[in-house]
What we know:
The chain has helices spanning 4-22, 46-51, 58-69, 96-113, 123-129, 136-139, 157-162, 164-182, and strands spanning 30-31, 37-43, 79-84, 117-121, 144-146, 149-154. By secondary structure, it is α/β, with parallel strands linked by helices.
Amino acid sequence: MDKQPQLRALEKEISDFVVRRTSKAPVPGEGSASAPVFFVGEAAGANEERTGRPFVGRAGKLLTGLIENQLHMRREQVYITSVVKWRPPDNRKPLKDEIEACMPFLNRQLDLIQPKLIVLLGNTALNSVLDHDMKIGAVHGRIIEKEGRRYFPTYHPAAGLRATRWKKALEQDFVQLALELEK
Ligand code: URA
């Protein structure tokens, strides 16, 4: 069965939930229902709130470039979302209750798409989806298997914009990610 209509219906359900709960602009996620790789960020920022699309600001441009140049894929072929499906006030870190409210939706997106790899971008994604105590600096660039899913933590692209060493680490991780996706 074609999963794309189911995914669009789930995105609509997420958007309706966000509007009901926050009266804010929803950013449910976008991409292919048959994506081999699924990217999870932290929360929407100003550009995402304005457009309703994930990762369309400066960090998004870096991520899109990595997808195109290192994975040789187009954005439409992957799936991109964040843990929190709206923009927290003043771009603060998401609160525990915001993360908890959104996690069931992330799990349903993952269950539907069943990607080969789930890329956790930064500590918020890593700590929300996997272990609270893990640090990106310690676990990035390698596969973590848990409950039948395969995760690949790496730096958040916004960190890559802040420091060259994190950008380099991101680029190196994406080389590894491309190899894993070819397996
Ligand atoms: N940062 C995120 O974590 N997600 C977005 O969609 C944009 C920026």
